[in-house]
Specification:
Length: about 400
């Protein structure tokens, strides 16, 4: 279920300017450098804007498409009947999109009896969704994760995936998720914009999509045919190269390894001072499942660390294995907080960390603790990463919620 973010770092990381560029820059005056930098920024901004297609103008015909649905069927523009066709570009990962899930379902319930067909389309290229953009979600935007989101949330509409090629998205130009497009019976665009004016449903005062549909159904002119939209930007395939720069930056982060004695292990387990959700993984270099899932642990550290979240790994290895452990951690770019046992007395150290009734010593062993040290999640053996995220995200939302609040349930 986890999207593949290609978090295998390149052997040679990006070093910025080339030697020749450095020599040239060194010869410039300060004013000249300023002009060059300003001009470069302008060009970069123009290039970024050029990579994003324009929004389909009101009055335009519905573009042709053929896209897979999460139900295993293929749909075209001719697959949908009804006097009006509502297309909502939305995705699985974005917290704004999540906040609107129930409202989209309600639109289907309220307007399908009136001859309105609503479908959703994922515009996002999954390889362009950065790990640190997934801090408020259990799922990313792969096809399998779309299916999981729809199943869990009981979506009552067709959901198509345009992410791999983005052909329809490039023709229609959605700018954020969600972004609504309403077509009439002749499949001419009559409205594009937002669902309403607030992620927080209780604060919404202007229900733009409903007002547009009500006017169209009544044969009246629309008060507005286009509105501002808000949400997560569409993840265009052109962002893959930009994402590679972030991966190189993460790969360059320092890796440290400390020794954990009895007092340290007691403090780690108590979690009385961090003010964060604490994720603890006990592992070893000789443990096959530990090694196979470690790269995903590193990804999840990057995913959640900008929120009140802390990941700690404890290598259940003898002190003389410090070099081997450090080498492994460095190879994995494990920049979280890492420990190795400070002595050979494993009984004493394990007892300081966890009672024998809760943990006999099998590896891997994972604990997720709230900010008061209460256990939110415990796993003996290989991790179920989806279940783990579904323990973490609600806990983080409770501790420090996103402004629009994520509807993901514990």
């Amino acid at each position: 279920m986890q999207a593949n973010h290609g978090f295998g770092y390149p052997e040679r990381l990006s070093k910025g300017e080339t030697e020749g560029e450095n020599m040239f820059a060194s010869r410039l005056t300060r004013a000249g450098r300023g002009l060059v930098c300003a001009f470069t920024l302008i060009l970069a901004g123009a290039a970024m804007a050029a990579n994003e297609p324009p929004v389909l103008p009101v009055g335009s015909a519905l573009p042709a498409f053929s896209l897979p649905g999460i139900d295993g069927k293929t749909y075209t523009e001719k697959s949908f009947k009804g006097d009006f066709l509502v297309i909502v570009f939305t995705c699985a990962h974005c917290p704004t999109a999540q906040a609107y899930q129930d409202r989209i379902k309600k639109l289907v319930t309220d307007y399908s009896p009136k001859g309105v067909t609503l479908i959703a389309i994922n515009p996002n290229h999954e390889q362009s969704v950065r790990l640190d953009e997934l801090a408020y979600t259990d799922l990313s935007d792969s096809f399998a994760e779309m299916q999981e989101r729809a199943k869990r949330e009981k979506f009552n509409f067709v959901w198509l995936d345009d992410g791999p090629k983005q052909e329809l998205s490039n023709k229609m130009g959605p700018v954020a998720t969600p972004h609504v497009f309403i077509f009439d019976k002749a499949r001419k665009l009559r409205f594009e914009g937002r669902i309403d004016d607030s992620e927080r449903e209780s604060s919404a005062t202007k229900h733009d999509t409903r007002e547009a549909l009500d006017a169209l159904l009544a044969g009246k002119e629309l008060s507005a045919t286009s509105t501002r939209v808000f949400g997560c930007s569409v993840k265009w395939a052109s962002k893959v190269d930009e994402y590679a720069k972030y991966k190189a930056k993460w790969a360059a982060e320092p890796v440290a390894l400390e020794k954990a004695d009895v007092a340290t292990l007691k403090a780690i387990r108590a979690n009385k001072d961090s003010g964060k959700i604490r994720f603890i993984n006990v592992w070893a270099t000789w443990c096959g499942p530990c090694v196979s899932e470690f790269s995903e642990l590193v990804e999840h550290n990057i995913r959640f660390r900008d929120r009140p979240f802390e990941m700690i790994t404890i290598a259940a290895e003898y002190p003389d294995m410090e070099g081997t452990v450090k080498e492994f951690l460095t190879k994995k770019h494990a920049s979280m907080k890492n420990y190795i046992l400070a002595s050979s007395n494993k009984d004493e150290l394990y007892d300081a960390f966890e009672s024998v009734k809760d943990w006999r010593g099998e590896l891997p062993y994972t604990l997720i603790l709230d900010e008061k040290g209460n256990v939110l999640y415990r796993e003996k053996g290989e991790l179920d990463f989806l279940a783990m995220r579904r323990a973490i995200v609600p806990a983080l939302n409770r501790l420090k919620p996103w402004g629009g609040l994520s509807p993901i349930k514990p």
